[in-house]
Amino acid sequence: MEISLPNGTRCDILTDEYAIEVDFADKWAEAIGQSLNYAAQTGRRAAIILIIEKPSHQKYLQRLEGVIESHALPIVVLPYRQGHCFPCDNP
After folding, report:
1. What are the backbone dihedrals phi and psi of residue 38, each rounded to the nearest 5 degrees, phi first?
2. What integer pLDDT is reported at residue 86 of this predicted model?
3. 34 domain residue, yes or no
4. What is the pLDDT along the chain (91 residues), one digit of tens a residue?
């Protein structure tokens, strides 16, 4: 269930610790901005659940992780494969 935020955007999942954007792998770049916006609006940590539907989508996860690492972005990435989230090694 999406949560309406003060600036009119909608956070996909909001927990006590995280403001989470959920998106398909090919939307990795948009997910960065959305997760950071949600974090700024809520005071929680930014996170992305990236839905990886097939092996060829692994490249999108690599791109996402590369941008996060090269800019030291405070975003947690949880790849979603075959019905499960798997934490990555990032902030």
Report:
1. -60, -40
2. 59
3. yes
4. 789 999 999 999 999 999 999 999 999 999 999 999 999 999 999 999 999 999 999 999 999 999 999 999 999 999 887 665 655 544 4
Rounded to whole angstroms, how far apart are CA atoms 75 and 91?
Answer: 6
Domain extent for 73:
3-85
8 Å CB contact between 11 and 21: yes
73 domain residue, yes or no:
yes
Return the CA Rg of the chain: 12
Question: In angstroms, how far is CA 42 from the centroid of its own chain?
Answer: 15
Longest Cα–Cα distance in the chain: 37
CB 28 within 8 A of CB 64: yes
The type of residue at 62 is Q
Quote the number of domains for the chain.
Answer: 1
